Amino acid sequence: MQFKVPQFLDIEDKIFGPFTFKEFIYIVGGGGLCFFFYKWLGLLYGAIPIMVIALLAGLLTFYKPNNKPFINLVEASFKYFIQSKLYIWQRRNEKKLTEEEKQKAILQRLSNNKNLDSDKLRDLAWSLDVLDSKKEK
Fold this sequence. Notes:
Radius of gyration: 35 Å
Number of helices: 4
Number of strands: 0
Distance between the termini: 71 Å
Shape: elongated
Structural class: mainly alpha
Largest sheet: none
Strand content: under 5%
C-alpha cells in the first residue's frame, strides 16, 4: 500500500487573496494604527508616526531577506541586543620554545638589566631549580 507524502509543508496558505493570514494581519494592523494616529493627532502631527508604522507594516508584509519573513530578522535583532554577550580572547600561536630556550631567554633579559644584584640572581636561580625539579617528576 502506498501513501501520499505531504510536500511543501513550509509554504503557508494564501487565505486573503495574495496574502497569508500573517501578512493580512500585518497590513490590517498597520492600517488600523495609521488610522488611529491620523484621527488622534491629525495629519500634520501624525505624519511621522504614520510613516513609521506604514513602513514597518510594509516591511513585515513584503520584505523577505534570504527568503525568510522579516519578523525573523526583527526577532533575531531583538534577542541580540537584549541577551548578554560573551567575548572570548584567543591567544595567537607563538613559536614553541623548549625549557632550556626559555631559561636562556630569561637569563639574557636579566643580564641586559644593569640593576641585577645578588639577591635577585639567587631568587632567579632558585626559581629555575624549582622549575627543573617539577619537570623531572
